[in-house]
Specification:
By secondary structure, the chain is of the alpha+beta class. It has four helices and nine strands; from the N terminus they run αβββαβββαβββα. Strands 8-3-4-5-9 form a five-stranded antiparallel β-sheet. It has a two-stranded antiparallel sheet with strand order 1-2. Strands 6-7 form a two-stranded antiparallel sheet. Bound molecules: zinc ion (2 copies).
Length: 173
């Protein structure tokens, strides 16, 4: 979304748990997410797994962590808003979000659904969207995400057990 489009719509208020430094302590955090654009869904988060990657993030063990940081990239929630271009979700559906929430969308890797190799790949919990808003993870009450980076969770899934499948659980025995 362009900066102008962002400014035309109010951002989404969110509440979560953030690390302010590498101590490992999380504390309550009020922040804003970008407005729901035409390609986005807004998800009311129901479950979010704890991955060892979150612990690395909080303790500044992988990247230089951008504090404050809201961890969480094994996210399951209910869709509460859809942009007008959204085709994969309807309000009320259950969506899952993993560790990627952005990429350029036009490079060879993105065109082959290999966004994880895109040079502009954006982690769910670290970095900035194109409009300048920070990416904050799933230890929070909601998330605004482009539908491209969310998966539809089929009816009948046990949702607490589904959350880890968005990252580590998929490779665990
Ligand atoms: Zn993970
Ligand atoms: Zn790309």
């Amino acid at each position: 979304m362009t900066k102008a489009a962002f400014e035309a719509k109010p951002p989404v208020n969110a509440y979560g748990w953030a690390a302010r430094d590498s101590s490992g302590v999380l504390s309550p955090f009020h922040f804003t997410r970008r407005a729901n654009s035409d390609d986005d869904i807004t998800v009311k988060i129901l479950y979010c797994g704890i991955c060892h990657g979150d612990i690395h993030l909080v303790k500044n063990k992988i990247w230089p962590t951008l504090y404050p940081t809201v961890p969480g990239h094994e996210i399951v929630g209910q869709v509460i808003r859809t942009g007008k271009n959204v085709t994969k979700f309807r309000v009320g559906d259950i969506a899952g979000v993993g560790c990627i929430v952005g990429s350029c969308g036009s490079c060879d890797n993105c065109k082959q659904d290999l966004e994880n190799y895109c040079p502009k790949m954006l982690w769910t919990f670290q970095g900035q969207h194109e409009d300048g808003t920070r990416a904050f993870g799933g230890y929070s009450d909601n998330m605004v995400v482009e539908e491209r980076y969310a998966v539809l969770i089929p009816n009948g899934f046990a949702l607490a057990g589904t959350a880890p499948l968005l990252c580590a659980g998929i490779t665990a025995p």
